User: What shape does this take?
Amino acid sequence: MQNAITTGQIARIHASAKAAGLDEDSRRDLLEGLTGKRSSRDLTRQEAARVIDRLNVLTASVAPPGRRPGKTMSGRWSSVLRALWLAGYHLGVIENRDDSALIAFIERQTKITHPRFLIDREDASTAIEGLKAWLSREAGVDWSAKHFVVQRGQGGAVTSSGEIRCPKRNVIAAQLEIFRQLDLPCPDVRLEPETSDADLDTMMACLGHQLRHHLRGRQSGRAQRRA
Assistant: This one.
């Protein structure tokens, strides 16, 4: 089939998933969430490109080569937990975005020493909900909020639309609210119904960079006044 995924894309997906610390189940879960398909061989070239873009985002926060396996996230729930941890970093709540800090948090929440040992859904839920509760408490993220979202197919036709829960949109809404509450120059950012998932990742990271810059400046100013 002319539009079928290429062998190079398949190889890149598997290599990037490995670099991101995803096991086979996690990789297939990621594919299914983005495309509705669990096998990379069933993807179109456009779907494969979307998966590769997402994996590039995930690998950006992975520990550098040479890091001991015990200090790097892996396991079925690692992508969800890492995404939440990175959201906390972009909200200015979490100082250390490194996997080792996330692993320590998971151990405090579950008494399980590494996320690869998170087998039971109940244990995973303890870590996930604990992290979401922290971000709600410290940054005001409303995980229950719904957003009107429009999704389009390859030809541009609308494939679905409606009010849905979208964690990334909830995090971005919380970021913008923090700018307002702190009376910081608010970036000209609009959450459009058709904003893609990849664009949401980029938007969240850009807002996070600006927010952390402002927060560091405020902390530095307070320290100088105390001195």
